[in-house]
Design a protein that fits this description.
Layout (H helix, E strand, L loop, with lengths): L33 H4 L6 H21 L9 E2 L4 E4 L2 E5 L3 E2 L10 E3 H4 L8 H7 L15 H7 L62 E7 L3 E7 L5 E5 L2 E7 L12 H29 L6 H7 L5 E3 L4 E4 L6 E9 L4 E4 L8 E7 L7 E5 L5 E7 L5 E9 L1
Antiparallel strand pairs: 1-4, 2-3, 3-5, 6-7, 7-8, 8-9, 10-11, 11-12, 12-17, 13-16, 14-17, 15-16
């Protein structure tokens, strides 16, 4: 089979004028709806709607490449979707499970392909020492070289990413925990920044427009910052919480939170307001109950709205009596012609009347009439004539 060339990107009936396109009335049933609506003959406007619908779906897939996840669809194993600008692959059959919140059912595309098992170039440069010329074994640094390459043992705090402990020790060889220790920090009310150095300090480096925060990161899942924001509020936010900040409430900062007593008072007042409103509504309904019309009274004094389909071949039903009136036009010659009612009479057809234009010498006869249609033949001429019919039934 030859490779299909890319077609033009035009959408069928995209430039249709007013009245040239009409939404298809029943997509799930398909063309069968024409038997009830248009005597089995769909209008061109419906064909325009169907062609446009197919082309729009093809254009949607052409533009996106991968369809968006939909909660109403069932997905088989290894189905590919996109959600929140991320490509996901289903690892099992699933329905209604949002990809970014259902790791048991969905995997990101890169993780599915195993790309999480490789280092990026930046990660490699950070983790490993690059190739180069190094001193031969047995070489010793001079005092000047050592002072330039290492921090002295009395150094405090941190410098350019080098983690140090203050008056403490590094963890043992079998301990995989990074420890920050200090015996200089007293109880917090008595601690001062100039004399009592902490085991760990997170600073804005003197930039008053920057926050002093650290990041907590569950790789491949979630990350956020925690610290002092630029308004000195202790808060979490950013990264996975992009555009959001949540302040930490404590005894010294209650914000717009209320005491338990205030909350209870407001709850009591809300309960009383609800009781008063309910009482007022009951009173109003009781006072006005006699002015309202009951369903029985409406049914006795008003007729229901007729239903039907208005067209050259149409019908209308009186819901009160159940009488159905149908009409139509057709062309007939000396050969027999079958006419199908726009809708079937549930009980039966009571009467049929046929009119043959203005030709007095020409008559028409109907026969084989049923609840769904009748046959008709022309008498007195071999020419074709336009005829009208009218039927009543229930």
């Amino acid at each position: 089979m030859s490779v299909i060339k890319k077609p033009d990107l035009k959408i069928f009936a995209q430039d249709a004028k007013t009245g040239e396109i009409e939404a298809f009335p029943d997509v799930l049933r398909g063309w069968g709806v024409t038997l009830d609506r248009t005597a089995g003959k769909p209008p061109l406007e419906w064909f325009n709607a169907v062609g446009k619908r197919v082309d729009e779906w093809l254009m949607y897939l052409t533009q996106r490449g991968v369809a968006e996840w939909d909660a109403s669809l069932s997905y088989p194993k290894t189905a590919i979707v996109q959600f929140g600008n991320v490509i996901y692959v289903s690892v099992k059959e699933t329905k209604g499970e949002q990809p970014d919140k259902s790791q048991a059912s969905w995997s990101t595309f890169d993780r599915f392909l195993g790309l999480k098992n490789y280092y990026t170039r930046t990660e490699s440069d950070t983790r490993f020492q690059p190739k180069g010329n190094y001193q031969t074994a047995g070489y010793s640094y001079s005092k000047q070289e050592s002072d330039g390459l290492y921090l002295p043992a009395t150094a405090l705090g941190t410098a350019n990413g080098q983690v140090m402990t203050v008056n403490g020790r590094y963890p043992s060889a079998n301990n995989l925990t990074t420890a920050f220790m200090s015996n200089n920090t007293p109880d917090l009310p008595g601690a001062t920044g100039d004399r009592n150095k902490p085991s760990l300090e997170v600073s804005n480096g003197g930039n008053k427009s920057a926050s002093a925060a650290m990041m907590f990161h569950r790789e491949g899942d979630f990350a956020t910052f925690f610290g002092l924001d630029t308004d000195n509020s202790l808060a979490i936010g950013g990264h996975s919480l992009a555009g959001k900040r949540y302040r930490i409430y404590h005894e010294g900062y209650t914000g717009d939170l209320s005491t338990q007593t205030d909350a209870q008072n407001r709850a009591n007042q809300a309960e009383q307001n609800a009781k008063d409103w309910t009482s007022a509504q009951v009173t109003s309904l009781t006072n006005n109950i006699n002015t309202r019309a009951t369903q029985e009274w409406v049914d006795q004094n008003f007729a229901r709205k007729p239903v039907g389909y208005v067209s050259q071949n149409g019908w209308v039903k009186d819901p009160t009596t159940g009488i159905i009136t149908q009409w139509g036009r057709f062309t007939v010659d000396k050969n027999t012609r079958h006419v199908t009612f726009p809708t079937t009479f549930p009980i039966g057809c009571f009467s049929i009347q046929i009119t043959v234009g203005a030709y007095a010498s020409v008559t028409a006869t109907y026969f084989n009439d049923t609840s769904s249609g009748f046959d008709v033949a022309l008498n007195g001429s071999d020419s074709k004539f336009s005829m009208s019919w009218f039927a009543i039934g229930s």
